[in-house]
Every structure is written in C-alpha cells, then in structure tokens.
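Design job #97: recover the sequence.
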C-alpha cells in the first residue's frame, strides 16, 4: 500500500481546500474568521524580499523564517505536500500518464532559470524593488482563486439557482436552500474585475507546462522553490538506496527530475513526493534522517554543488547585479491617470511609491471588498503599479464602516486601522462638475449625492439658490473622505456629475 503517497495526496487536498476556504469565507465583518494574510505570511519569498526591499521587519517574518527552518530539517516538503499551486500542477499533470524524462544536462539548464530568477528578485530587493509577486506561487494561486475562481463559481451558481427558481418554478425548499447560501458561500458580492482574462491566462499557462514536462514550473521557474531548494540541500532527511538494480524506474517517476542519470539525486530538488519509494521494484529506496554534512560526491545522498545542481555562477550573478540597476529607472513618479485623476488607493494605504513596492498583488483586498469597488490597476499607475488595487467609484464605493482590506493585506501595504481611524481616513476628494450636475445645469431638483453621503456632518450640503430656489449640492472638501458613494449613486450618465480624485 502506498501509504506515504496517499498521505501526501490527502495533505495536498486538505491544504488546497483550506487555502480556497480561507479566501472564500473571508467576508465583512471579519469576526471569528481566519484571515487569508496568515497563509501568505508563511511565504518566505515575498515576506523576506519585501522586508529587504522596504528595509523593514514585516510582522510575518517569523512565520516565513519558521518555514525555512522546517525546510532545513525536512527538505522541500512544502512544494510536495502543501503548495496550492503545486497541487493544481499535479492535477493538470495527471491528464497525461507519461511525461518526458529529461537527462541531467537538460534538468540543469532548467534549474538555472529559477535560480537566476531568484537572484534577480534578490538583487532587485537590494536596490529597493520588490518584484517577487511576479512569480511567487502562493500569490499566483491566491490571485487566481480571488479574481477568477470565486467570481466565476458564485456568478454561475447564482444564474443556475435563478433559472431553476424563476424559469422552472422550482421554489419551496430549493428557494430556502438558495437563501441559506447567500450569507455564506454565495455571499461574495463580486461582479467584475478587469484583467481577469490575463490573470486566468497566466495561471493556465503555468498548468499547461505540467502536461508536457512534470512539474515544469517547479523545475524551471518557481523562485520560491529555488529559495526552498537552497535550504533543503542541508536537510538531514535524505533519500538512500542499497544494492540498486539500475532499472531507472525511480528516475522516470521523479516529478521534478531530482533523480539523476546515475540514479543519485539532487537533494534540493526533491519535493518528497515519495513516488520513487513505491516505484522501486525491489523496495530499497528509503528516506531516513542522517545527521552530519551532506553525503560525499558519488554517494546516494549527493547534493550537487550550486553550479552543477543548476544554480547560477558567480559571473551570472554579477551580470544580474549590474543589469538590475536598470530597475531603478522604473520608479514611479506619481503619474496621473487619464483625465488627470490619480488612482484612488484603498483606505490608509502607504505613500504611492512605498505602496506599489510593498503590494504583492495577491488579490485579497479586491476579493473582500464588499462593494467590488477595489479593482486591479492597468497601466494607470505605470508599469510598476500593474495589478495593484485602486478604488473605482463607478463600480463600487468604499463602505464607510469597513476595514476588511487592511485586515487581509499580508505585507502592510494597506495597514490595519481601527474603525474610528477609518471614519477619518481620507482616500480622495469629491468634486462636482456643474456643467453636468442636474441642479446646477438643469435647475432641476436632485439630492442623491447629499442623502447618500455617510459622513456624520455631511460632506455634501445643499444650498438654496436665491434666484431659482433650487437646492444645489456643495462639497466641503475638509469633511469629504473620498469614499466614492456619491459618484457611485449619481444618476447622471455616461459621465458622473460628481467624481472623486485621489488625495495623493
């Protein structure tokens, strides 16, 4: 019985289910729920690189270092037993029964890519640029779940229930069941995300690689895997064999190409999937704790040198070092979006340059936004700002009494704030276009913006025109917090008569 393989699969399924559940179940208000930030804080790549680039000690650094410590003891267990993207890749790879088996030279070339990416990310962090989010597997998986999977499933489920209840007349218990799901599974109010197609395409490309070569992403691209591989090289839990028959079945079964042509293995590349243990026809492959340094060259537990194992050379590192200087040229200079309005950031977000650098584009804040107002940025904030969150009032406003986005941000790009602080936090300022506003332009009564303003003292007040008697809205910019509900509710179309611009 393949007990360890079964245990791994159960672990993968449970961890993936927990990951999706945490992201899915996080709703307003956040009481008694597991915040999704905790899962991201166990990711040493984004936490360490963000801390390095920002020159700060992020709160999640202890959890991230704990994962590295566990890897020093057990090896790359995270990649084989926990990683949600790794699980999805295994499922995609299962569509094909046999994968291409690569030789040592080909595997070394592939490994150099991910170690090169890790070095590039590290060098960029040294220069103050955090680019780990581009290739981090936890971020990639979280972004897919939050911005693709959850919206698609909830939208489809709503359509199916509405069709069954309204069109087919299946009310009664089915209708009651549907309403019971609304506060929980179907309670996520997600209607629209731009760039969702690009995010989905990126995710599918990652999965597609596994159909050609098993765990291609893990072998060649994943910088988190490279980070763990460096630590796993010293793990005392190692693969051992005795009196090998040289049948090569273990090499064919190895998901990451860790087993070499001579049936030795590169310890840092082993993800402890345990397939080699059960494919061995004479049952001599084992994993055991062996204290002391890594085995000598030529022994079964060989850990290849950084150069032979696929890591980059010193020359390559310095090439990356000097080429990364050009990353400094992409520093954001406070560009304005089309129409002269800067993007509106979430409440209490850090200053623009620091925010863009610290944000890992995980999608947590956008998914939990109860009005769907937080949306991924395109090019409005420059090349570095892509997929960072912005408030788009015409899609949704910032709920006055909600602090959920800050409570789910894993890096503090959106800080945690109390409700009293939130009520005073300024996102932007509303301004009335008098050429479009109904009372100003048409001398017809409209009090929509004033009646929906949530500020206690009303940041939008109505003043009566002495000549016409019409009540006209006036914005008190000192009281306005820029929540955007006035713009969202404004009845004027296509352009709203009141619009919020960033205060930054």
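Job complete. Output follows.
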């Amino acid at each position: 019985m393949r007990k360890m393989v079964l245990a791994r699969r159960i672990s993968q399924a449970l961890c993936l289910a927990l990951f999706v559940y945490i992201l899915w179940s996080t709703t307003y208000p956040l009481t008694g729920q597991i915040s999704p930030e905790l899962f991201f804080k166990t990711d040493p790549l984004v936490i360490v690189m963000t801390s390095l680039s920002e020159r700060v000690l992020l709160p999640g650094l202890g959890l991230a270092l704990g994962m590295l410590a566990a890897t020093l003891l057990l090896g790359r267990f995270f990649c084989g037993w926990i990683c949600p993207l790794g699980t999805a890749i295994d499922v995609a790879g299962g569509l094909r029964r046999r994968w291409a088996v690569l030789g040592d030279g080909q595997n070394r070339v592939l490994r150099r890519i991910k170690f090169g990416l890790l070095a590039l990310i590290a060098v960029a962090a040294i220069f103050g640029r955090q680019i780990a989010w581009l290739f981090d597997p936890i971020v990639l998986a979280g972004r897919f779940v939050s911005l693709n999977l959850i919206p698609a499933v909830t939208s489809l489920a709503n359509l199916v229930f509405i069709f069954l209840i309204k069109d087919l007349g299946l009310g009664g218990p089915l209708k009651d069941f549907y309403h019971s799901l609304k506060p929980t599974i179907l309670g996520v109010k997600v209607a629209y995300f731009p760039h969702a197609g690009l995010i989905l395409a990126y995710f599918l490309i990652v999965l597609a690689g596994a159909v050609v070569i098993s765990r291609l992403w893990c072998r060649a691209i994943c910088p988190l895997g490279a980070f763990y591989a460096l630590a796993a090289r010293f793990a005392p839990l190692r693969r051992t064999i005795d009196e090998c028959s040289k049948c090569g079945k273990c090499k064919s079964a190895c998901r990451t190409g860790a087993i070499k042509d001579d049936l030795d293995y590169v310890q840092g590349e082993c993800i402890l999937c345990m397939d080699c243990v059960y494919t061995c026809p004479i049952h001599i492959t084992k994993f055991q704790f062996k204290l002391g340094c890594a085995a000598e060259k030529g022994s079964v537990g060989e850990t290849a040198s950084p150069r032979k194992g696929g890591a980059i050379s010193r020359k390559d590192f310095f090439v990356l070092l000097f080429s990364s200087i050009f990353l400094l040229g992409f520093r954001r200079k406070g560009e304005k979006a089309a129409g002269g309005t800067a993007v509106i950031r979430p409440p209490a977000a850090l200053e623009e340059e620091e925010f863009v650098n610290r944000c890992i584009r995980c999608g947590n804040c956008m998914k939990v936004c109860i009005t769907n107002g937080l949306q991924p940025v395109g090019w409005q904030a420059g090349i570095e700002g892509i997929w960072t969150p912005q408030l788009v009032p015409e899609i949704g406003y910032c709920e006055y009494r909600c602090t959920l986005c800050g409570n789910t941000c894993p890096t503090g790009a959106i800080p945690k704030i109390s409700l009293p602080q939130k009520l005073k936090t300024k996102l932007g300022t509303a301004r009335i276009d008098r050429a479009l506003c109904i009372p100003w332009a048409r001398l017809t009564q409209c009090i929509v913006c004033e009646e929906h303003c949530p500020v206690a003292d009303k940041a939008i007040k109505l003043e009566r025109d002495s000549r016409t008697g019409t009540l006209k809205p006036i914005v008190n910019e000192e009281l306005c917090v820029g929540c955007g509900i006035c713009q969202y509710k404004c009845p004027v179309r296509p352009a709203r008569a009141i619009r919020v611009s960033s205060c930054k």
